[in-house]
Amino acid sequence: MTLAPLGDSAVVVTLGDKIDELTLFRVRSLASELVREKSSDIIDVVPAYTTVTVFYEIVPHGMTPEPPYERTCRFVTNCLKRIEDRWSDLVSANSDRTSRLETDKARRVVEIPVCYGGEFGSDIEEVARLGGVSTEDVAVLHSGVVYEVHAIGFTPGFPYLAGLPEKLHAPRRATPRVVVPAGSVGIGGRQTGVYPLSSPGGWQLIGRTPQTLFDVNHQPPALLRVGDRVKFKPISPQEFDTWR
User: Fold this and answer.
1) What is the pTM of this model?
2) Which of 170, 199, 171, 202 is nearest to 183 (CA)?
């Protein structure tokens, strides 16, 4: 583990040097512990890939205030010590196939409907060409695996999903679009994701979902969180139109 400042009001906790199941578990465990034990100084806790970023208030603390960065690092370190035993339990579980399957069953799986191609996925032919497959294959391959949310960011609720089949790996567009419709499903390199809101974007668009991924009137506003598993379900244009 390493801790490093991010500006003057956050600390980045790095828990590994590669993206894998154990590191993501450590990230999720630490983030949960920080939220559960959250002090009044902590503003936000953001897990992503191999890191947890902790944002804090720059305020005096007590009669002889400890510097806020040092105070936050101490708080993070104490939380980390409380969950170290759980990490060793996961290592043991990972070595046992039955335990691993039981762990997978307990995790949340979110199904997201997607209408592939046509007006909803204008880049699907390019993705198919790059992968040497048909446009129908793109939909089959993309919806045929279970993904894992490794980060939420870029825009509110945008999920970065790991697990994209290799044949669908495609570079981002040379020129980003000024506007990408909300619900667009895209591919950027080795990752896939969904644009929760209308925004600029440079990923290759292969489809669109009628599912709302971010709504400020809901609690929590984002549909997905780090550690969730995601399964895409192909739907027809007619199903898309009648979804709501």
Assistant:
1) 0.82
2) 199
- Which structural domains are found in the chain, ordered by start? 2-102 (3.30.1360.40), 109-242 (2.40.100.10)
Using DSSP's 3-state secondary structure scheme, residue 226 falls into coil
Q: pLDDT tens-digit profile of 133-176?
A: 999 999 999 999 999 999 998 899 999 999 999 999 999 999 99
CA distance 35 to 43: 10
Residues 6 or more apart in contact with residue 17 via CB below 8 angstroms: 50
Find all residues with CB under 8 Å of 231, minimum gap 6, and list them. Answer: 109, 110, 111, 112, 143, 146, 147
Output the six-digit token pair for 161: 């999903």
Going by C-alpha positions, the residue among 143, 105, 117, 123 that lies closest to residue 232 is 143
- In the structure encoding, which two tokens stand for residue 192, read together? 């896939």
The sign of the dihedral angle between the CA atoms of 14, 19, 20, 21 is positive
CB–CB of 117/135 below 8 Å? yes
The DSSP result for 140-176, as a single string, is HHHHSSEEEEEEE-SSTT-EEEE---GGG-BPPPSS-
